[in-house]
Known about the structure:
seven-stranded parallel β-sheet, SNF2_N, Rossmann fold, alpha/beta, 11 strands, hydrolase, 2 domains, four-stranded parallel β-sheet, ATP binding, about 550 residues
Amino acid sequence: RTAESDEEDAENDEAAGDDEDEDEEEEESHAYGNDVAKRERARLKEMEKLKKQKIQEMLDKQNAAIDADMNNKGKGRLKYLLQQTEIFAHFAKGDQSASQKKAKGRGRHASKMTEEEEDEEYLKEEEAGTANTRLVTQPSCIQGKMRDYQLAGLNWLIRLYENGINGILADEMGLGKTLQTISLLGYLHEFRGITGPHMVVAPKSTLGNWMNEIKRFCPVLRAVKFLGNPEERSHIRENQLVAGKFDVCVTSFEMAIKEKGTLRRFSWRYIIIDEAHRIKNENSLLSKTMRLYKTNYRLLITGTPLQNNLHELWSLLNFLLPEIFSSAETFDEWFQISGDNDQQEVVQQLHKVLRPFLLRRLKSDVEKGLPPKKETILKVGMSQMQKQYYRALLQKDLEVVNAGGERKRLLNVAMQLRKCCNHPYLFQGAEPGPPYTTGEHLITNSGKMVLLDKLLPKLKERGSRVLIFSQMTRLLDILEDYLMFRGHQYCRIDGNTGGEDRDASIEAFNEPGSEKFVFLLSTRAGGLGINLATADIVILYDSDWNPQ
């Protein structure tokens, strides 16, 4: 038994030794694995660091080139403006301004140059390549056929670019301001080798249209839509909104404010502001934010004619050319006109100031082949129910009306009367029920609805397609019930419609062979930059306080 015990002990010792060896090997393997993983993490971290460094270097290089170009363009800007009209001498700073003021009133002798000096300067400009470019054909990167007036608009934009001037493209709605703007970016890409970066800032409802138009007319431009929830925006920031990876950033007014930290990292070639009348108040958050961005050029797009409001005009000019239009007081003083009969003189002066910056053409001027737009006001009486509510409202607030009460209360009276004229069901408890059922009463209790019910079948019969605008979202609800009751197919956009739903509705209405007959739109949400060119009839169910 002793010999056997010794043998067992030896075997046990040997087994224990094997276990220890295996444990050591496992520990070594684990340590090696940890070391490999650690080195791999360090390698990936270094790669990420180098990637960020490379992106930052590319961004710095891009920004430096744009900043240098900005300085070069700035040198010739005032000279160009002074050549356009003597008015800018009133606002220009420094010796050049003073010398121009002294020359005022000397007519053709105002120039200090001799004829030989002027000729020599023109030759220098020719040699330097600063003479104005004029395209006779559209850039080859632009798909589709540009009309003659659109090509003329592109040449105007190119002339502003060459002279370092910002501008306002204010063509009437429907003349292709978006296409002309995209063609400018295409021109810079094709002829100047400038791929960006550019930023388009527009109402949220129009971003889808901008993206579609860029893809349709100039597919060589790499466009990024910067919109979405924080997670989506973070993904775009990391993967798409990177120097060298995009040419055009399309974003909304809200994102331009909310994401200014991200967007201010770039020096922009062009900042293009669609529906630019939104920045006419220089104290608004949007206007202040847009002034923070570094850019070579600013282009404002608006289909809304500028009102003869001097301060709003100064605000726009200050945004376009802050180094010249720096003082609102100087601007207002210069436009002070004595007497009531000199309003025409003010308007003439305004036109002179705007001439180098503003391009506005009307359809009647450029589209000679189009039939004139017909505007018809259809007057309609109120229903019996509307008359009852109207009288009750007036009697209730008669004292306020007769006494010319405070403005807020008077406006409230006016709003209640407008609701009554639109449809009495806008008042709580007016609609018969419960149960609430859609029937003929929805039509017969509103004079406007009676007329609309007669109009739509005739328009449908002749193949027309209709846009119906209203100020009131709840009225759109009533119209929606009516369209379902009559079996008309429709789309709808109001302030609560999400971006994707907007784009889907617009696409569904515009697609070839679409069976959508009516598009319901709230004036605020649908009145800005939405392309619904397949419709030929617009019905304003109720008009805005400001017809523009």
